[in-house]
Amino acid sequence: MTGRFDCVWLEIESMDVRPATYEDRAALPKVHTAAVEAFGPDGYSVEEVHEWAGADERSPNDYAIDVGGEHFTVAVRNDEVAGFGHLVLDVKEVQAIYVHPDHARHGVGSTLLAELEGYARGRGLRKLNLLSSLNAVGFYERAGYERVGEGESPGGLAVVGMEKRL
Description:
25% of the residues lie in helices and 31% in strands. The protein is α+β, with helices and mostly antiparallel strands. Helix 1 (28-39) packs antiparallel against helix 2. The chain is globular and about 40 Å long.
């Protein structure tokens, strides 16, 4: 018996994931604010989202991409910064993963997280921890992070402490 196989070709948009540059800093506040405004309501009140987004207060200077012991990475799709990740080596912490909503659900966040984990492994870290916003807990659980507690972020938002063995 012979069968017929239909092939489906998928065009996958390219994504460049690389260390953030000084020029990338201009895009980071916009990505940060847009991500919080789009996804924050899944876990927080309107007031909390507004405070967290800080649209009027964010500046490229808030993202110290050239500080020793820290690693900023960006994902670029269609020639624009689609998301960024931030790792602090001294405390073994994923500090942030933000994806602009125009690029959500395209593997940007997962790719950024995998890059941060690879970078941490390359620096000899065996475990990472993070404080997850309530709206992102499922994302981190799917990536293998486990809940270790609940608390508040430095800004006063409810968060879930999580960790992962690398």
